[in-house]
Amino acid sequence: MLSHIFALFNHFVTQPAYNPSVQFDNVELVDRPWFPYLCTEVEHWQWNTAGDGHYNFWVVLSGDGYLTCDRETFRLKPGMFFIFSPHQRISANHFSGPRITRFSAHFQPVKSGNRVDLDTSFRLLGREALSVSTLRRRIDTLMRIAMRREDDPLLAEHLYQLICELCSGVEIASDVLLNPRVAEAMRIFREAPSTVESIDELARQVGVSRSHFDREFTRQVGQAPKQFLIHCKMIEAQRYLESSQMRVGEIAEALGYRDIYFFSRQFKQCCGLSPISYRKQIRAM
Fold first, then answer.
1. Structure confidence by residue, pLDDT tens digits, 192-251
2. What domains are defined for the chain?
3. DSSP class per residue in 101-168
4. What is the pTM of this model?
5. Is residue 56 a contact partner of residue 73, using CB atoms and an 8 Å limit?
6. Which end of the chain is less congested by CB atoms within 10 angstroms, N or C?
C-alpha cells in the first residue's frame, strides 16, 4: 500500500536534485509527531504568532480569510502557500465564508547534512500553486507518510521536493495582495471596531475619498466596508457573550452602539439569535 502511495506522489512531484532558488538540499522535520498538521479551522478563526525558531511551510487548501506578515496583507484562497522564516510576526483571520483548511509543516533547512541559516532573500509570501487539485493530492500523500514515524527521512525528502517544485513553478499571487490602505482599514475594523465612528472618517484617516475607499475595499475584500465593520463588531460581540459577564447593554456600548435595541436587531440578523439567546445556548453546551 505504501509503495503505491509513494509512486503516486512521485507521479505528481518532479524530483530535482537541487533547485538553485532554494538555498538548501533537504529539510529537518521539527515538532514531530504533531507536525505536519492538516486541519479545518473553526468559524472566526484567528492565529497570531511572534514567530518560532523554525521555518513554517504553510498552505491553504480551501476557504477564505486574510493573512498579514511583514506589513503586507493577503486575501487567502485555495492553492496559496507561504514559507515563514523564524521569528516573523504573523496574524491570520477568518471572518466569513468557507472555513480555512490549512496544511503546516515545521522544518529547519539542511545543506550537506548540516543546518543552514538562509539569507533574507529566501522570502515566500502569497505564492500560488499552478494546480490546486494536484497540490491537495500531494498534501494528502504527505500526511499518509507522516503517520509512520519510521518514514521520517522519506517524509523530509518529499517535503523538500514539494518546496523545490513550488519555488520554481509559481509566481506571486499579486491579485491577492491587498492595497496598504485597504489592509490598514481592515486592521482597524478587526482590532478596534468600536473606534470607527464613521466610514467617512476612516476613509480620511487612510488618505482617500469615501467613494474611492468604498470602491477599492469592496473590490479587494468582496464586501462593502460598512458590512465588514458590522461583521467585525458581531464577532467581538460573540466573544464578549461567550467569555465575559458583561450585560448586553454594556457590550453594545463597548462596541460603539448608542441604541441597545438596534444592536440586538443587528446581532440577530448576523447570528440568527438574539444576544441573550446566544449566551444561553453557549452556556448550555
1. 899 998 999 999 999 999 999 999 999 888 889 999 899 889 988 988 998 899 999 999
2. 2-174 (2.60.120.10), 180-284 (1.10.10.60)
3. EEEEEEEEEEETTEE-PPPTT--EEEEE-S-HHHHHHHHHHHHHHHT-GGGHHHHHHHHHHHHHHHHH
4. 0.70
5. no
6. C
